[in-house]
Every structure is written in structure tokens, then in C-alpha cells.
Amino acid sequence: MKHGFMRWTWGAVLALASGCDGIELERLVKQQEPLSISRDEAPGGNCVLGGSEVLTGLDADEDGQLDDAEVRRTFYICDTDLPDVLLLNEKVLPGEKCPRGGQVSRAGQDTNGNGALDAAEVTREVYSCEEASPVVVRFTPTSDESCFPSATRVEAGLDLDRDGVLDDAERTAATLACLDSGQVKYRLQPQPESAHCGTGSTRVDVGLDTDGDGTLEDPEVSSTAFVCQPLRTFDGTYEVHSAADLAVLRGIGRVRGDVRISTTPLTEVELPALLMVEGEIFVQGNTALTRLEMTGLRLVERDVVIDGNGNLTTLLLGSRVSPGPALWIEGDLRVENNLWLPTLFGLRNAQPRRDVVIRNNDALETAGSFDNIRQHPGSIIVADNVSLQHLPFPNLNHVRGDVRITANTALPSLGLPALLGISGDLEVAGNSSLLDLSGMPELTTINGGLLVVENEHLRSTKGMETLSSLGTFLLARNPDLETVTGFPSLRTLDSLSIGENARLQALGPLHLWSVDSLYIHHNPLLTDLSGLGNLQSVRALGVNTNPSLTSLRDLGHLRSLEQLLVADNAKLTTLQLDGLEQVSAYFIIENNPRLPTCLATGLATRVYTGTEEPARTSGNDSTASCPPPPLPDGWNPLLPGGFE
């Protein structure tokens, strides 16, 4: 809404604007007539939404008009769309507050309803300063299927620390040149306000100097990026508690600290001019907030946290354009506990450098698409989103941290179609609509562990046919799982633990030949270990509390173990570990009530070489007899000495 200057009194202006000149002005007022001029101010740097420019001074020549030389102060009475909030901006000359000049903003509620911001109504006063940072550029050789034979990634941004080098935390724009990095030329061109940058920008033109004159000319430009120039800078952490605080923040482009919006009564937060935050953005516990938009945002040097805003339905950080300029987030991106947020499409240009956490957003159904996230340096955690139908990472191909997909009860598929490798763990847990592990058809490598736990209706582990390298595999507490299969390319594991799967009957076919640690436990219906028949090498073997298992004959190819545990298998009647030649450190076969004790003790006598721990064979069937050992090859009882 517009605020007419005619409703101001000279006393109110004097109180807000005179500062140290107040005594002098008050004296002069008695001799010379104070005058003011008010004229429209278009939306821009002085008033984001437009307003009125007000010039004030004394009629020194007593001609009844305010001449340029008589102007003592320039004010901007800015429009706001915040109910009853008034905003007054005043230019600040270079000095102690702002070495290069800037602006002081005062805002507050119009509590007396007179349409003017009285001194007693000011609840926020903020100095924001002009700061000029040069644009710097860097080239990085890369590969891209759209470029042959070479490609260079060109990144640009403001040199915030003025060291002449573009750091990761300074880049705000990027483009691709289908050239070798030694061939790339660039030029910088100042640009006015535009759709790319609402506050003005520096255009970075990139191309090949085909005529060799040392200058990049228009016909030689092959691609372009825009480095947005921020409005004034606020030094420190900016906290928003009220609509007046928000009104002032709208005119600031750079915050050298955090932006924190917590437990406010605000229903909408729109900050189109905010370009960079050199700390974190923290929006938490705003129970009335329905819309959060920061469309100019290009760089956040720490975390972005959107947490516990119970009525938030619109979230837009970064450009509206898709594909558009990246929103670089040097820390985590965390969107948690926003119960009515339906989509993350408004984050599609975000590129976090650390973890992406999407957790406990009950209405999140179509999560959007993080198209720019490909080589992700952190972890990805998608958890407790009960309506989620798909994962929002269609182009993700490598994750240096973990991927954790847990308790998304409506998720029908893992849905990471381009994923090739994970340096950490892949956890798939508590996703009750998953029937198998399909959705990652290109996955070849998990350096950490694959943890498949507590997926209520998981029937099969098929879907990872391309997986050829895996550290550890934990398969536990999946109550509908009937078989373990679907890993034809997997040959070795550091550990394999299969336990507490109530309906699991068979393992395999698997093609494993080496597992350092193998532990099979608490699978009540498991009768068949034939899928492990190719195993040649195991260091530690544990078979524990599988009440339907009768024999270990499918592990008969094993030759040497350090540790052997066979315990509490109610129907186990025979071991048949005929190929086993040595157990070197730890031997326990106990509490298998149908297994003849003599089979356990006989095996211990034959293969156990440990000296620190004695073999333990108690709790087996001591009443059962054992068949005589097989006769040696060539034995003939009719011949003297028994041998031919």
C-alpha cells in the first residue's frame, strides 16, 4: 500500500532523520521555512516494491520552493504488502557506519493508524552498506555428452574475500564451453536488472577467440552466465521476529552471517532480493507460515534448514526458471517436519555440498526433481515421508556419503535410475510398500554396507542385478521375505548377516565365493542353504537359532575358518562340513538338541587348533550315537593289514 507523505509532520521527520544535526535544524526552523517534495519511486534498490521519494530541506532563499542545493535529506517511504507495516529508507553517506555509503532502514507497525511511521513506532533499524566485490572466473576440465572431444566448466562469482581466486563458497554462476580449458576466453559485461538477476548483474560471456585478436567478440560467444550483484550488505546475523523485521530484510542482498526466521506469526515470507547468505538460513517453528520464497538466492555458505513449519505449502528457494542458475549450498539442505508441504519442486536448482535430508514431511507426495544433483559429495537421507511416491534424484550417479531411504511407507520403488556408485552405505529400512529392491538398474558399487531392514512387505531382494562390489550386507527383520536372490554379479563380501526374517525359506541362488564374516540367525522357516554352495572362503561362520534347519552340508566346500559358531538350531541333526580342515581360534557347537554330541566333538577333535579358548560342545544330544567314520580309500578288511 502507498503511504502519502502529506500525513507526516515535520516534527516526526525531524525526530527520525536529523540525527546529530537535530539541534541545528531546530534552530534554523525558527528562521527558515522547512519544505519537502514527494514523488513516486519505481520498484528497485531504494524500495523493492516501489513507494515515494521524499526530499526535505530549508527554504534558504525564501522563494517557496525546495531547490537541489537546499535538500538536506532524502527519504524513501516504501510500499509494503505486510499489513500495517511502514518502512522508511534513507541514504547513508560514506562514513563510519558504511565506508562506501549505504542505507538505513526503519520499520514498524502503524499502531496509531495515522499512515506515518512515528518515532515511537520504529521497532527495527538496520544499516545496510554498499560493497563492491570484483567478479572472478575459473575453468575446470570436465566431460559432457553434449561436447566432443573436450569440455570445460566455467564458474564465476564475486571475490568476497578479495584474494583473486574463485573459491567454492564464492561461485554463484556456471556455464559449459565445448572447448579445451586452454582455449576458453571470457569477457565481463555489466547488466541492468533483468529476469536473470533482479538487482543487476555481471554477464560472463564465454567462447573461442577465433580471429586471435585477444578479444572475445559477440560472434565468438558460445555460452553465457550471470553473476548477480547484491543490493546492500548487512553485517552480522539477521533475525526475523516480526513483519517489520521482514520488511527491512527485503531490501538487503547480502547477509554476512545467518538469516534466522523462527517462531514468528508470519504467514508469508518473500525475499526476492536476497542473493547470498554467508552463514546459514534457518526457518523453524513458524506455525502460521504458508509460503516461503527466496527467488534471488544463489549462494548459502552453510546450511539451509527448513524445519517444523506446520502449515508451509509453498517452498521456493532459488530461480523460478527450470533449468535455471544453481543455488549453491555449501552445507546441508534439510527439509524436515513440515507436515503440509506437498512438493520440493521449488528446490530444483539447489546444489548442496553436504547432506540432503528430507524427513518427516507427511504430505510430501511428489517430491520434485533435483535435476542438477549428479556427483553428490555428502549423504542423502529420505526418511519418514509417509506419502512419498518417488525419490527426487533422477540424474544422481554417485554419492560420496550414505544413501538412507527409511520409513517412507508409501514408496513403491527405490527409483534412482542413474545411480552408479555409493561410497558409504545404502540403507533401505521401514519402507512398507516395497516388494523388492528394484529401481537402481545401474548400481554397480557400494563401498560400505547394504542394509535391508524392517521392510514390512518385501518379498524378494531382486533388482540389483548389476551390483558387483559391496562391503557388507545386512538383511534383517523383513517379515514377508521368502528368498534371497538377485545378485548375479556379486562374488565377495566383507560380511553377510541374514537374520530375523520370519518367512525366509531359502538363500539363493547366490554366486558368492568369499565372505569374511557369515552370520545366519533367527530365521524360523529357513531350511535351505544351497544358495551358498559356491562359498570357498569364510573367516568367521555363525549359524544360530534357525529352528527348521537340519544340515550344514551346503557349506561343505569350506576348508578353513578362524571362528565357528553353531548354536540353538532346534532341528539340526547333522553337520556335514566334510571339507573343513581347520578352525583356528574359536569353536562352539552347542545347544542343538537333535545334533549328536559325538558329531560336534568329533569335528572339534579333527579340525580345532585353537589354544586360547577350548572347544565348546555342550547342550547337544548326548544320547544319540554317531555312525562310524568312513573307511579310508583302499581299505579291505579281508586283506592282511586291511589295505591292498
Automatic annotation (TrEMBL):
Q: Which InterPro entries match?
A: CWI-Assembly_Regulator, DUF7151, EF_Hand_1_Ca_BS, Rcpt_L-dom_sf
Keywords in alphabetical order: Cell wall, Glycoprotein, Secreted, Signal
Skewed-composition ranges (Low complexity)? 633-644
Location (main, coarse): secreted
One Pfam match, given by its short name, reads DUF7151
Gene Ontology CC: cell envelope
PROSITE patterns xref list: EF_HAND_1, PROKAR_LIPOPROTEIN
Protein name as annotated: DUF7151 domain-containing protein
